[in-house]
Amino acid sequence: EKNNSGWWYVSWSGGIGWVPANYLKPAYDEEEDPYKVCDGDIYYMTIRDFKTTSKDEVSFSKGEVAKVDLTSNDGWWFINVHGKKGFAPAQFLVKIEGDDLKEDLVNNPPKLEPYLKKADNNSNAPPRSNNHRRQSTRKARKSLRSKRVPPSSAVPTGPPQGDKYTVAENYTASGVGQLSLSKGDEVIVTAKNNEDWWHVWHDDKQGWFPSNFLIDSEKIVGPQQYQLVADYNPTSKEELSGKIGQIVVITDQHTNPDWWFGSIGAQEGWIPASFLKNL
């Protein structure tokens, strides 16, 4: 049995019981999108306090209104609370419906008590495996950009003027007016019409581009050297193995703040940022 709480009911040679969904993977290699993008603006009431334990999560207090962008049956949803975005436990949220849906919902939330009665207060947040923390940010970003539609507002004219940004990941245009760019391309952002799509120039081309694929160029630095403070043994083939004292050349600190991409000699992969220190 699968459900949005993130706890799945399974059977194995030793018996049956509930296990965290993100500690499981398909028995066969499958490439599927684990996230479902919400159609339109979907709002939920937070019915328990939540404090982040990872940089890709978002904290909130009981009684706040959250806009849900992505759902997943692993129990961790991608939400927006007062402009702050990140992952949060799905069972700490109850959907707002009916007469409670009104204008300025975020600043004037409905009464909390009716939603507390709907809540499952006996369910704890499912633990997040290291693999889930490392992959969730990248997968969520791909899900969001594949579903969002660029704004229909007028395209800026004249010579490009604006801030410089760098493309963090390859992107292939999926609609009219979008721009295909490669990781490392530098662009000039000429319009930020909404939080999802910005209008950019690259060389002599212009078009709409997903904002969560861009990094402020002023924050970009070249490859940096770090030293391992402890041995690290990978749990997947995408991760980097290293011994205490070894030097790691880090080339990506932005895709996931908790997991950095780097190399030791000819080997490269993802490694926890907490295992590294500045030289």
Largest sheet: 6 strands, antiparallel
Structural class: mainly beta
Low-confidence residue ranges? none
Q: Considering DSSP H and I runs of 4 or more, what fraction of the residues is helical? A: under 10%
What overall geometry do the principal axes of the alpha carbons give? Answer: globular
End-to-end Cα distance, whole Å, is 49 Å
**What is the count of helical runs?**
2
Could you tell me the radius of gyration in angstroms? 21 Å
Overall mean pLDDT stands at 79
Outline the structure in words.
- The protein is mainly beta and 279 residues long.
- Helix content is 9%, strand content 34%.
- Strands 3, 4, 5, 6, 7 and 8 form a six-stranded antiparallel beta sheet that branches.
- A hairpin with a 5-residue loop joins strand 10 (186-191) and strand 11 (197-202).
- The longest helix has 18 residues, at 130-147.
- The radius of gyration is 21 Å and the shape is globular.
Summarize the structure.
Helix content is 9%, strand content 34%.
Annotation keywords:
mainly beta; 279 residues; 2 helices; five-stranded antiparallel beta sheet; 9% helix; six-stranded antiparallel beta sheet
